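ok so i was messing around last nite and threw this chain in just to see what happens. nothing serious, just curious
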Amino acid sequence: MSRGSTAGFDRHITIFSPDGRLYQVEYAFKAIAQSGLTSVGIRGKDSAVVVTQKKIPDKLLDAATLTNLFPLTPRIGCLMTGQAADSRSQVHRARIEAAEWKYKFGYEISADMLCRRMADLSQVYTQNAEMRPLGCCMMLIAVDPQLGPMLYKCDPAGY
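result:
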């Protein structure tokens, strides 16, 4: 019944292994890698662009209905890489966060604040046993009137 050096440390999310690793977070990164998609984001002085592959998992699915690009606000969009269900969940949460910010403060949320908020939520998922880290990575792309184009990345570890 020996499981090697990881014995018991990958059963709960809040237990660190002797070498200081959270295996559940590493499993979330493996889930992103297993999606088989490559995503790239580039920001220049006056533009920003994100690019990803489009793979259709089943020939019965209509290719026009699958996307990894989602609008969050009129000025912020995101590119999701990883598990499709986790991606939709995180996009929904980002839209809720942006709407609550606008309701609370009366103006649109900035891309860096939305990314920081989503990273904080992802980091909370690594602390609570009733939640699991989402197997998706979010790239936020935006154009700010004062700061110009912006590009941010948020992963399951909360970075």
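not much to say yet. The radius of gyration is 17 Å.
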